[in-house]
């Protein structure tokens, strides 16, 4: 099972990064996030819970204000 955490509003997340005085690239470097992975998240990919926490900590907002907790997805393996 895994937690599903889509970004509520990618434009808002981009704005929060900008308000910190960062570009997406500088934010990713500063917070130990791959630039490519962060770009994918900003384009709709769902991050891991650990990555969602890094991002929310980096912008200084609670994780549930940025990411939508949609429940638990069951694994397709048995």
Automatic annotation (TrEMBL):
CDD domains documented for this protein: HTH_XRE
PROSITE patterns hit by this protein: HTH_CROC1
Residue intervals of the HTH cro/C1-type domain: 32-66
Highest taxon of source: Bacteria
Pfam family, one: HTH_3
Protein name, as recorded: Helix-turn-helix domain-containing protein
Organism of this sequence: Lactiplantibacillus nangangensis
Lineage: Bacteria, Bacillati, Bacillota, Bacilli, Lactobacillales
């Amino acid at each position: 099972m895994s937690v599903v955490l889509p970004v509520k509003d990618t434009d808002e997340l981009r704005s929060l990064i900008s308000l910190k005085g960062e570009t997406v690239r500088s934010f990713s470097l500063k917070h130990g996030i791959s630039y490519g992975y962060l770009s994918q998240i900003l384009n709709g990919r769902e991050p891991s819970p650990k990555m969602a926490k890094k991002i929310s900590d980096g912008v200084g907002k609670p994780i549930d204000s940025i990411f939508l907790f949609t429940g638990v997805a069951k694994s397709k393996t048995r």
